[in-house]
Amino acid sequence: MSRPSPKKRAPHRLLHLAQCTRGLEGVLAEEVKGLGGREVRPVAGGVLFDADTALACRLTFWLRSAVRVLAPVISGRVGDFDQLYEVASKARWEDLVGPRRTFAVHASVTDGPFTDRHFAALRVKDAIVDRIRQRRGSRPSVDRQDPDVPLRLVVRGDRAHVFRDLAGESLHRRGYRPVQVRSPVAEAVAAALLLLSDWDRQSPLLDPMCGSGTFVIEATAMAADRAPGFARTFAAERFPDADARIWQALREEAADRLKPSLPFRLLGVDRHEGGVGIARTSINAAGLSHLAQFVSGDAATFEPPFAPSVVVTNPPWGERLGEGEDLVASWRALGTLLRRCSGACAFVLSGAPELTRHLGLRSSQRWPLRIGQHDVRWLRYE
After folding, report:
1. How confident is the model at residue 371 (pLDDT cuts 50, 70, 90)?
2. Are 170 and 131 a contacting pair, CB within 8 Å?
């Protein structure tokens, strides 16, 4: 009697990776699920998920809290640089990069056999160039500033993963900033914190220390259903196997979904006219200036012209701790204003625990985050 032939194992499916700020993985996971991602699993600094090409492009276009969406190319166990070269050599780079596109490899190495991430990236680059030259007779060029095909090498333990970066330039760059403002709260972080708050996108919102307006602009975009990728392009559109129809459909859908008006108010206030000017320029560039307002004013004396449902703000902290009494006065002024917003729920970002006591309020919930080199807290006040 003949034995039944053993069943073939299904090939291991490589997962996509969306990256975000540490501490915001749960927010990103919910976003990915809401947009149709499958097998969603949070990991440190990101979310793994399964997606086809169309869905991966959709996530790149619509995710608010992500900074990158990475599409898997090859994965394998590595113990040294030669094994890394061998793993990278197995991918069909002649189709994924080709000799006519520029590319670059950026590496992230954690708890693995390599201590030099730059040399690890160099070995992957060599594997790609050698394979394409062998199969196509010519080699692609490296462009570290603006490559057609940006690649990411991620080494965790003894496993190496090589991805294509669908966005290229970080997803926090929405395309509406005239200049990139130095701030610990980039657009993707601000959007994630808004998603983490109680704000329902259907009620009035106030930022009494708005700076360059990131919270209010992101809130306005969310309320108006403006896609984060509405005004920018993506590296994936330049890939050799790019499908222009996918991106065209995404842009047409985004234009159809954009709301022309809102039945509630969004307001940003700051005592520094320079920040208010940047905020106005930015929201105008986003095409949303008719949906929100920015005004000059000091939190110590400002009287909100409406009753906000939610107050979100990022008071001065971090390097500005050296400003001494002026910094303390800012937090006291914020506490005074919050007490004038009866019935509202407030969310305050703090990178200096010793300053929060000057609000004169007790937080009801706090979320720890890591933004850049800062350990911060997103604090909720009733």
Report:
1. confident
2. no
pLDDT (0 to 100) of residue 198: 81
Give the C-alpha separation, 341 to 355, whole Å: 21
Tell me the whole-structure pTM to 2 decimals. Answer: 0.92
Helix (H, G, I), strand (E, B) or coil at 279: helix
Asked if 74 contacts 89 with a C-beta cutoff of 8 angstroms, the reply is: no
For 122-175, the DSSP string reads HHHHHHHHHHHHHHHSS-PPB-SSS-SEEEEEEEETTEEEEEEESSSS-TT--S
Amino acid type, 218: E
- Residues 224, 262 contacting (CB under 8 angstroms): yes
Q: What's the rounded Cα separation, in Å, for the pair 97 and 132?
A: 8
**Selection from 330, 328, 85, 319 nearest residue 208 by Cα:** 330
* Residue 379 token pair: 């604090």
- Where does residue 249 rank: exposed (0-12), middle (13-18), buried (19+ CB within 10 A)? middle
Query: 162 Cβ partners below 8 Å, 6+ apart?
Result: 72, 73, 74, 75, 87, 88, 91, 124, 151, 152, 153, 154
Predicted confidence at residue 13, as pLDDT, reads 78
381 — pLDDT class (breaks 50, 70, 90) = very high
Does the structure show a pLDDT above 60 at 2?
no
Q: 313 CB contacts (<8 Å, ≥6 apart)?
A: 207, 208, 209, 210, 215, 334, 346, 347, 348, 349
